[in-house]
């Protein structure tokens, strides 16, 4: 049963990965701007950022997907641009709200003395934020960023409500064709589990790589005729 629709499942994997990565990368970039906006002392920057986060964190992602696909994009462009544009946009906007809070909390966790020391040396605020505060905060942001990536991967299955050819859509097609539900949906669950496992391994390596205790592995010295090259006899 599953083998007969293997191409549909393979395409569903690629669509799921594409939606997740596009939504996540866009969510990080937009979330950085919104997170910095929530730290701004200017009200015309702070309040729009705050209301953005409140709206996208306080409403269901499913409603956001339907609203963007059926109302927002057709109103702006005059027609629908397809499930991928709508789905990726909804995932990006939703992810940006959560990433903004991660970034805001990460920056605020850095001791204020870091910024004061940088400013006392004559460094502008933007330069100090980019070279002093953000690199330190990034180490603390990696674990929650990883959790958000895993959550977004699973939440991407909601895009199937607008006929996206993702993994869950493949399972629904097989279930409808054979009127059997155990095999297709367990297959979908296993494939999501496999993707989650891969992402978890990448996140674990990234956390280790950027941890304070990380020590780079020394390169092995090349040996020639039993002696290290460049060494004395």
TrEMBL record:
Keyword terms: Amino-acid transport, Cell membrane, Membrane, Transmembrane, Transmembrane helix, Transport
Q: Where are the transmembrane segments?
A: 12-34, 55-77, 184-204
Q: Which domain of life is it from?
A: Bacteria
What membrane topology is given? Multi-pass membrane protein
Cellular component, GO annotation: ATP-binding cassette (ABC) transporter complex
- Where is this chain's protein located in or outside the cell? Cell membrane
Naturally occurring in which organism (per UniProt) = Compostibacillus humi
User: GO annotations under biological process?
Assistant: amino acid transport
> Do the record's keywords include Transmembrane helix?
yes
Q: Where is the ABC transmembrane type-1 domain?
A: 13-203
Q: Which family does it belong to?
A: Belongs to the binding-protein-dependent transport system permease family. HisMQ subfamily.
Molecular function via GO: transmembrane transporter activity
Q: What is this protein called?
A: Amino acid ABC transporter permease
CDD domains listed in its UniProt record: TM_PBP2
